[in-house]
Amino acid sequence: MPYAGWALMLATLSAAPGASSSPLPPLYMITYDHGGVILWGVSHFEERLRDAVSWLDKYPGFKIGLDNEAYAYDYLAEASPSTLAEIRGYLARYPGRFGIGTCTYGQPLSVFINEESNVRQIGYALAACRKHLGVAPPVYLMSEHAMHSQIPQLLKGFGFTGSIMRTHFMMYGYNPTFDVPTGWWVGVDGSRIPTVPTYNGEGSHFGRTTVDNWILTRYPGPECSTPLETYQREFARINPLLASRADDSGLRREELVKQYEGKPGYKWILLEELFRSFPAPKAELKTPPNSFVVRMPWGYCGNEIWNGCRAAEVGVLTAERLAALEYILGGSAHEAELETAWKNLLVAQHHDIQICGLLDDARRFIPASRQASQGVADASMRYVASRMKGGPLLQVTGFNPLSWRRKEWLQTEVSLPQGAAHYLRVQRNGTTVTSYTAVRESYPDGSIKTATLGIDAELPPLGFRSFGVSATTRRPSARQDVVHVDPKALTISTPFAIARLNSYGGIASLVAAGTGKPLLAPGRRSCFFAGTIEGQNAESRGTWQLNPSQDGGEWATATERGEIAGIPYTLQLTFRADTPRIECRASFTFSGQRIGQLSDDRRDGVSGFIHEQKLRLKLFPATGPSAVGIRDLPFVVAETPDRYVEGIYWTAVADADGGLAVFNRGNMGSVRESDGGFSVSLAYAMHYIWGTRMLAGQYQYELALYPFRGKWQDADIHRQAIEYNMPPVSLCSEPGDGSLGDEVRAVDAGSLGVLVSAMYPEAGHVYVRMYEYRGRDSSAAVSYLSGKAAITEVDLAGREIKPAPATMAFGPWRIRTVRIDPQRQ
User: Fold this and answer.
1) Which CATH number goes with the domain that contains 449?
2) How many distinct structural domains can be found in the chain?
């Protein structure tokens, strides 16, 4: 992260030390150069690397390490292998003085990447370090905020021996503080790992560095005249004391190293020496989810990068589950393609790409990830479908990537030769399955040329089901409407709710079907757009067109077209008979408007975080003054008192009687507004500290509203949000050979309280990772359904723990992984 030219970072340090006869505690110093090839490039990396090494020659007591994204090592191996060889040479030349501190593949802000991305960021980083450099860091160190309440469980699972619980540059988050030299960092599941914490008073403010990091990067110099002795006196209660730096490679002061070279009481160490030098931990430092304070500039770049990363996450998680099943059934594991998909995604999650708006990089890495994932998904679907049962005309195969059974409409595109069919019938095991055909093109004889075929499908967990499609001369009988639409009254009724739309846009009311209890605040317009645009507070105004579903589909759409402060938009709401979820698709056409809090400061570090002035979707939940915010974070769900409610897959506001959840596909920031509104940030286009990004052209957003009654803990919001994010996969093809029948399942995993976060093939094995997601004791079984297999519990690094029991116990928020050694078909 660049610093030059901005004043926000001036840390508040105490005055110069007064006369004191108290002995200073010994000071250990750690310094790691933060950087890599993203943002900075290879030339800068090489220059700073050689500068650091020159200090090793000048100052025998000095030690330094590298805190690069691990992607840099993969990149150098291809683009500049001599530079990689140079690093290896320095490791050999300066043993115990030059180290590697790289702990993540793409240096993400880890709170806002999903569960499995958190795992793979660490796993791929350690693998890259070992592959290219022969070493990996034993202690977790971060420059920018990559901390949350499940980090101890992740670090323990990967075999780390310790951690430094410090965010050295706190622009996007900071940690709880503790006044002990060392302690046990205890995560939300009870896992614990030795740590050196952030001390009370060392740093807990946005936009600053920790006090010691500031000294180690700027003393002596015009920005800092405070020596390390001041730091020692301020924290004399901590003994021994650690001063640590993990900061940009261009932010080092050789004068500081020279001043403290050989000085008694001052010692440079590397990460691998830390817990040999410090006392064994005793105190438990518990860090529940709200201990970590975070923020993000939601809507920056039109939210394009976060939305794209979410699509890439879903793509690779789906693809690797398909590949695992193809491998079990005798096909390819597609490991190289999956690694390509993951690594491109992990780099796209780089903090500098996301919050410096590096759109060229984002538009390179995200499509590369999605393309690789789609290629695997297509190949695996074709492989399995070709062995399933369908016909006589066509076969539709559906795959459910989730670990629970689901029933919903499959949609697939059909293309037929002339005369093949005038109408279509779908069957399974000789029984007609409810379907609809929306004809797009017809031949002159009236036969179908192209159509969308919808099937009311029940799909097995982590499994496939195929359907036979045949031609028929009889028009399917009309089905009784389940979703009722009244265009004149602007009402849509489903088995769950009755919606009345506002004549000038938005929803006028939403009540529960049957009881009439409000699901949105009565008397308040909801589901409209609001924002500060060109300095003026604005609300959207539009007109509705209601469209009942054709040909038997159990849903209806309402499309609103309008504008907000001159910005044209389209909003489409879909109401369904099989779920209370209301799906929202919005599209805006921007032309350089200033969106958000106005500022004349081109290095504005404030306006990008004022979410209630951004362009947003605004709602009014039917909740009272006792309502709380709730959101999901990596491998945990928690309430929050904050007005900014930010979650990975969903955010919600609820009281004891019910509430409203919003599922997102990248728009992770929500606001509890002072007027009782609950809004979702969509777009921001105004001055911003790392580069202003104005918006031009069309931007699209996908969300879903999920109103519920009763306690939020009983509404199963998390599973519903994941279901929205990970739809089933369908393929229309020629009939298969039938060798696998019309249903395929190979692995059964998970339970009501335990979800599968990943299933993937690797080196002849299939791995299944599960986690408890409700904060309760639970259990789950893992079964192999395709013959014999050894099932072994392993840690996150793949090391064996023990044979997996028939039923595995899960404490609250626990993560467990099994390895299946299948007998392949």
Assistant:
1) 2.60.40.1180
2) 5
